[in-house]
Amino acid sequence: MNRDLNVKQPLAPFEFTKPGEQSVQQLVRPSLSFWQDASYRLFKNKIAMAGFGLIILMVLLSIIGPMLTPYSYNDTDLTQINGPMSAEHWFGTDTLGRDLWARVWTGARVSLIVGVIGAIVPSLIGVVIGGISGYFGGKLDMLIMRFIDICICVPQLIYVILIMIYFGSGPGPIIAAFAITGWMGSARNIRGLVLQLKEQEFVLAAKTLGATPARLIAKHLIPNTLGIIIVGITTAVPAAIFYEAYLSFIGIGIKPPMSSWGQLVNDGIKVFRVFPSQLFIPSIFICLTMLSFNLFGDGLRDAFDPKLRR
Amino acid sequence: MKKGRGLLISFILITALLGGCTTANSSNNAAQPGGEPGNQVETGSKNLTYSKNAEPGSLDSNKSSDDLGNEILFHISEGLVRSYNNETVPGIAEKWKISEDGKTYTFKLRESVWSDGVPLTAKDFEYSFKRFLDPATGASFVETMYPVVNAKAYNTGELADASQVGIKALDDLTLEIKLEYPVPYFLVTLGSNAYFYPVRQDVVEKHGAAYASDETKLVTNGPFTLAKWSHEAEIRLVKNESYWNKDAIKLDSITQLIVPDSNTAANMYDMGELDYLGDIPAALISTYPEAKGELAGGIQMLQFNMDGATPETKAVMSNANFRKALSYALNRKNIAAAVAPPGTQPANRFILPSFTDFVKNHPYEAVPVEGDEAKAKAYLQKALEELNTTVDKLPAIKYVGMEGKNKVYAEALQDAWLKVLGLNNIEIQILPIPQAIEATMNREYDIYIQSLSASRDVSEVMEYWLGDGSVNWTGWNDPKYEELFNQASNLLLPDERDAAFFELEQYLSENGPLEPFMYPGVSYLVKDYVTGVVKSPLGAPNQLIYADISK
Amino acid sequence: MTRYIIRRLFISLLTIWMLATVSFFLLRSLPGNPFQTETLLSAEVQERMMSYYGLDKPLYEQYFKYMGNLLQGDMGYSLKYTNRSVNSIIAQSFPISAELGLRALALAVPLGLLLGVIAARRRGKAADYLCVLIAVIGISVPSFIAGTLLQYFFSVKLGLFPVAQWKSLRHTVLPSLAMGLSLLATLTRLMRASMLEVTTQDYIKTAKAKGLGSFKITWSHQLRNAMLPIVTVLGPLVASVLMGTFVIEQIFAIPGLGMHFVQSVQSLDYTMALGLTIFFGAFLVAANFIVDIAYGFIDPRIRVAD
User: Fold this and answer.
1) Do the chains contact at A274 and B286, CB–CB below 8 Å?
2) What is the ipTM of this complex?
């Protein structure tokens, strides 16, 4: 609300302005301050930055990791199955004798892509639908909310199987499945937020001043929800990685012989009593990624929320 | 505010307490049926506990359509004959006579009673068999009975009069079955399928659609009775004191727990919650050196679609040399050792090794179990010349895999074809069971691992691939094969018949759309105080009727 | 209020009808049929089975027949468990899933809220980070890993609990724990965020200015207001938790509903899948309804009739 008080850079010494040279609003509320403030607070949050660093590390490793070993993710060697960690195979080999280091980092590409895009797409769909529902309210809102109720209840597996049959399996279809089944939650959140914002004084003031709905949405509602949206996306990343793992657990998912963390964990769980490392290695990376996205997401929320200023 | 706070607190408390209360009550109820494993004293001392991974689809024997139901029914029912430990032994039929032409079977029944004391008669068998065929019953595996006179006509609705079907109770203890043509393995069929157990008319009619849905809604005549069926949790069988041969039955009860996850089942076995582990997951086999392996009685084959998933692949898949190249490129022995469930053996021919005489008299190797890379490459070269193309220009070939046990092969095969033949155009699509079968039915595949049972008779594995074969979804329709098959089937002398089927096997290997791949196996573990557990491909996967416990 | 309830009820029924319709046609658009199991049936027999169960009739005809039966509360017989009615399967499995869900909730709700409050009050201190860490770990470990590990260490290695099955109190501990863990984590996060959200509200400042103790402020001002968003989430959360989870039920061999949700769709057991969808739909709609009413009690500013 009183964001103007939060500007960090020193105000310029007083100076007379000529009428019309600068609009009053621009002077009072430099458009960057919100972001500057947010990034300032984000960079000061050590835990969030540690999370961010971990994410960068994972991305880097997923890019260069597979190049560090001569083995490819799909090189099977039936004479070297279930090998232990060694100088030859850093993470050991799986049940088909494939190098796990290569599989973990090739899988990381799939999982991170599915995670990030899979988080952004449904969130955006949810924002649009939830925004419309909340902003216009009334009958339309009621209609959309009931539609959401229905979408939540229709068994997700139906969509998943349909998508798999008509579009095959792979990161694209998995993202599509996640988008179709995951947008409802974010739509609900955004709707609630917009409903709340709509009644706030500054929106009322803008309305009274004759702002069009487009301007209202662009200038007031979106900036005020952006923080929440971005936070929503970062916390949805683990959910999407999870979802891919869940699809693997019930037997649908990435196209073999491609690997993904979900697939690796699912294969690992079958043998974990005998070869625990096959479960723990991919699990540790899933957990670390989730941890870092969660920490970073929490940091982002704290940074974006003006009310949480200390 | 004060009032509100109280409300809030009570809201939270009520939520938590409600949880606590209901849970406490219902768990008391839930604790009653089975009690904890290990202290099941109420059923007597000799109880054998084991597990299956799912609930039977139905215990209505005529409509049973899965091994799970068959296994329970095997223990609680008895047919005319019984297939036990891969041998056909007398059941309710004390003796039988087969006519010279092999078409009329006359069964003499022993005096016996149902579990509720009502005498069992030949009429009960007649009723059961006809109910099985009755289109109003909706039984699925009716084709097993089509050799019987007028059975097919009655089942498809062309014939309304059931009395014209060749099944007749001549008196209370005599049953006559007439066949359209001789079927040398007819007794095996009768003994190994759940559909041929007797059911009693008055009980079926009393319960209607809910017949056999729990222990109070059916009567049986086998060594055990269904004592308790807690759906998706446990099935308890108790010794049937009115069974005609009850002295041979040593166990007092059998408890079948339903444990979907095979790792969980293994954990339970380790902790002594199970006496017998019927199926060890492949990944755990190295922890159980004492495990025993057994063939499961079927065959897995590489099935090729001669029609091709697309017009482009049709030319490729109908090329015999290309198919041979794919087959020879596989080192079945290595694949079996690495990823197949223990007990599995690499297959080099269609006839199962369990037909020992046949295999001894007619040795044959359709393809070496280690494969042959040089030959595979030569076959591929020949195929490419015939197709006038190169490896890089081959169209994408669709490998359809089914969820479940065969899924593990997909990647091993794909890799072998890439390494040996340089084929990088094999696209794997893994589908859930109904969709995978639909895809094969509609010929929307190029390569598929087909898994079929083949242990009833040597002819079984060949019969599928006739032009009108029940599951011949390969686009292969060879009149010569059909002619050879009919000739062989009409032979009655075992030696001649075997020789004819051997010729057929070779013909299929050379020309057919299939390549033998694996004889799937199961591995299992029994505690040392358990004896008499039988694994068999026919009748039921686990046969515990004569098992015993000596703790 | 009565008018509101009647209107809400009408809308709910409409929603459920729409849900049934959408699910019916979506399910039937899946390729394959329920009689295609691993033991193969010839195409002719499959057709005959389809016609036996009336699945060969025009789709709209089947739809009206199904809806007619549904109106009388009859959801038909399962196509996989051929002699068990959908109603009886739900009646048998739901109490078990619900019990498991309630146990998990009884563990997760009080503890999760408590941790959330502690984290918010000690924001930025060690206690906060500890709570956040617990929450993040709870969210980061997929339930099938948590379940498998709990089972292996507590049952197989330590022998403290039975491995699986759903029979006595001791059988319920591990699955409830495995399920409660992620719930606990979710609730802790939500509660912490929600508490922080209200900290800066004017009435809290007023209360502080009045000289109220911090405990008193948390207890009588923050908590009540922070509960609002929690209750919104709790409604659908409880509904889905009580419906069972496939993963936990699979690992611990629990005869609940969760397994049916997955298997009925995978095996194309149309009647079963539809019945479960409608049951879940009705349950969720009811839960949302209760949440809306509960709003009125927690926050007098929100009037349901709005």
Assistant:
1) yes
2) 0.87
